[in-house]
Write a structure and sequence with these properties.
Shape: elongated
Number of helices: 5
Distance between the termini: 37 Å
Strand order of the largest sheet: 3-4-5-6-7-8
Helix content: 25-40%
Order of helices and strands: EEEEHHHHHEEEE
């Protein structure tokens, strides 16, 4: 079986009924891997695909909302964002300055501004549910794939949570 969609084209299901679509999307001066996946094609609606397409098309505003959510978590000393930044400072030491794109002197904000959006994974079968519909993966150093922050979005584009990949 397959689902036809204007943005994604023909989404054919695998032998187990799952669907998968992947594309590299240009974003600023980088390329972001965007994956759409669902374990069962029957759980994916055209509405879910429309929402996914809209999110991909508005990646810049989605990214801004995600970064703003990270900044909002800086007030909480125990937040995963704060812990991530402190861990990066401890691990990288003086090398951290080399990874900051536009240092202002506020290291926490500079780290958030310098994070690179590595990927966006859309869980198409979670449309309208309470589990994340999309997950954005951010890394300060693209070569260090273990040290990432994940921003979970609902199907209406609202940030649900920011977590580390630990």
């Amino acid at each position: 079986m397959a689902i036809e969609h204007d943005f994604f084209g023909l989404l054919e299901s695998g032998p187990d009924g799952s669907i998968f679509w992947s594309e590299n999307v240009e974003f600023g001066d980088q390329s972001v891997t965007v994956d759409l996946t669902a374990p069962d094609q029957d759980d994916v609606s055209i509405d879910a695909l429309d929402v996914a397409a809209a999110m991909i098309s508005s990646l810049e505003s989605i990214d801004l909302a995600a970064r703003n959510a990270m900044v909002n978590e800086l007030d909480d000393r125990t937040s995963e964002v704060t812990e991530y930044i402190l861990q990066q400072q401890a691990t990288l030491g003086d090398e951290l300055d080399d990874l900051l794109s536009d240092p202002s002197g506020d290291t926490h904000i500079d780290v958030i501004k310098s994070l690179q959006l590595m990927s966006m994974t859309i869980l198409a079968d979670e449309h309208g549910g309470t589990d994340p519909f999309a997950v954005l993966e951010y890394a300060l150093d693209p070569d260090s794939t273990d040290d990432v922050l994940l921003v979970n979005l609902s199907s209406d584009g609202q940030v649900q949570s920011v977590t580390s990949a630990d």
